[in-house]
Amino acid sequence: MNHTSFDNILQIKTFKLGIEDIQNIGSSYFGENNKKIDRYNEEINLLKQQLSDLNEKMGKSGVIHKVLEPVSAPKITFWYYELKEMVIH
To answer: Coiled-coil region(s) at which residues (predicted)?
Structure first.
């Protein structure tokens, strides 16, 4: 048996997270997620503009048949359910 890996497992520190810690983690995750969504939406808009420009150069109409809609943040997140469960119990 490999005692080294077993000893390493025993040395892992545990942390107790309070409700404020969990809310802070959730807020941080939500903020980062919104930044990514904003960045993706900027990329989508840039690609739509580039496609429109290419269509104009090729003499086609500026109508895009398949439109990529900007992404929106989910209204209810994982953290909402977790906090709700903690409050109920």
So the answer is: 30-57
